[in-house]
Amino acid sequence: MLITKDLTKKYQDFTAVDHLNLKVNDGAIFGFLGHNGAGKTTTLSMLTTLILPTTGTATIDGYDIVKDNLQVRNLLGYLPENVMLYGDLTARENLQFFGKLANVKDIDRNIEEVLSLLNFTKWTDKKVKTFSKGMRQRIGIAQAILHKPKILFLDEPTSGLDPQGTKEIRDILLQINKDWGTTIFMNTHLLSEVTKICTDIGIISHGKLLVSESIANLTANFKEEKSLEEIYFKIEGGGINA
Amino acid sequence: MHNSKIIAAKEFRTAYKDKVFIMIVLLFLLMSIASVYIGSTTKNAELKAYQDIVSVIQSEGGALPAAPEIFPLAILKNIITYITMIGAVLAIFLGFDSFSSERENGTLKLLLSKPVYRDQLITGKLLGAGVIIGGILIVTLLFNLTLFIVTTGLLPGVNEILRLVIFFFLAFVYMMSFYIVTLYVSIRTQDRTSGFLIMMVLWVFISFVIPQLADTQKNFAYALNSIASTVTQIPSDTALSKTIEYFSPAVQFSNVSGDLLQTVSATATTSVASVLGKNLPALLDLFFPGILFLILSYTRVQREDAI
Predict the structure, then answer these.
(1) Chain A nearest-CA residue for B307
(2) Average of per-residue pLDDT values in chain A
(3) Mind listing the pLDDT tens digit for each residue in B134-176?
(4) Is B115 close to A74, i.e. CB distance below 8 A?
(5) What is the CATH number of the domain that holds A209?
(6) Residue A33, CB-side half-sphere exposure with 13 Å CA sphere
């Protein structure tokens, strides 16, 4: 379970994330929505231990992201936005490298398993620089799930992909969540993705969390709005606090 | 250390998949081999000229001139120039995008989201570069040693081998210093192009501009001495020119290496210990930039904005 308490990140006078209180249950697919510059990536960077919070705390499975950062990193998988990986290395070499760093025991077996899950075995020994964006994204997911993490953080995983690529990534995430019970925390600004895949949603604007609910509860609370898009604009525009 | 070794192995693998890097390495090896060949040919020509003079004098019944002193390592003197120039470029090429490309490609975030400390990342990169540069220098040493034996027909003694090993160790330190400074610049710059340009400008300054300034100062002293004629002469190697040269590790490397490889007749008979003792300030100057920028790199990479 992921819990944040008053998680805050300030850059001098600018507050990127302001007293964020979140709870993401095990096995959930959490869509973290917000406009550009809302604070999504900063939140993700803190949760993945890349940057330190200014104040507040966050725990993943009881481990503090600051004090127990190595344990936290063992629990998580992460795919940043627009990751290119090492172009001169093959998909297998990239995965072997990241797998070793993640202390994966039986790397070669895990690589085969993950690549067949992603339907990618054909391109295992091809250099990553020859891949399309969608293929690179799949290899990016492969490195993130190689050690079967408890929680997977994704930053705009379908950004820049064509409809076919978007669907493939969506199907993969649903499968990982179903087969392994992996919790997925996904930054996105695509409402359509959230409706198709997420069980829970958080909306952030100007660093402040406006709402954090299950999609079922949210639609029940906003009966007058016909779609999630209408709900989103009502919450963002109205500044409703959940 | 485990993670650093994994990162070092990756650095090694990616470097040797880079065609431009391989071309620079091959150029470096070829030029060092050519330098031994040219050096030995020149030396042999000098010896032949001496033999010819001896034959002529003997036929005329005159007194024989003193035999020239032979310092076989001197045939390697062109290698000093190649290491000073191409060795530095090779180290810059190895390091200019070592950090910025990880940032540009998003792999830096991936690396640091694994159970890897930031200092392990720097250690891994240094280790990788150390193995690559060390490997290239060892191959060069073995090539040159073989060529040296073949062209001169001499087997190097303990003294020659010791001088060669120290020379190649100093070459390693010199090239690693360039790598470390480049790594630091790569940490500080947002894109690989800026890092490369900064380092090339620095290389031009260290290898050409500063030595030129020092030479200008020496020439100025020479001119003054000529004008002053019998009046008290100032040494051509002035304190100012020496101070200027301390800003160029390239000059320091050349000076120490010249003494080690017995390229200067006046100092060729000096023992290895004396050479090192005499050049202690130059040696410290050679080590200083690497150590300074190593500390700066480890410090800088801990900052949040390094990602």
Answers:
(1) A50
(2) 90
(3) 999 999 888 888 887 887 777 888 888 899 899 999 999 999 9
(4) yes
(5) 3.40.50.300
(6) 25
Query: Using an 8 Å Cβ cutoff, are B176 and B183 in contact?
Result: no
pLDDT in tens, B214-249: 888 777 777 777 776 666 666 666 778 888 888 899
**Whether B113 and A50 lie within 8 Å, measured CB to CB:** yes
Work out how many domains chain B is built from and give that number.
1
- Which residue range is the domain that position A193 belongs to? 2-85+151-238
**Domain for residue A156, yes or no?**
yes
Residue A80 forms part of a structural domain? yes
Whether pLDDT at A242 is above 50: no
Strands A151-155 and A183-188: parallel
Per DSSP, the three-state class of A211 is strand
| Partner residue opposite B110 with nearest CB, options A52, A70, A143 | A143
The pLDDT of residue A2 is 95
A82 touches chain B (CB under 8 A): yes
Q: For B304, which of A52, A73, A82 is closest by C-beta distance?
A: A52
Token duo for residue A9: 């990140």
CA distances from B154 to A110, A146, B259 (A): 57, 58, 21
Say how far apart CA B118 and CA B102 lie, in whole Å: 13
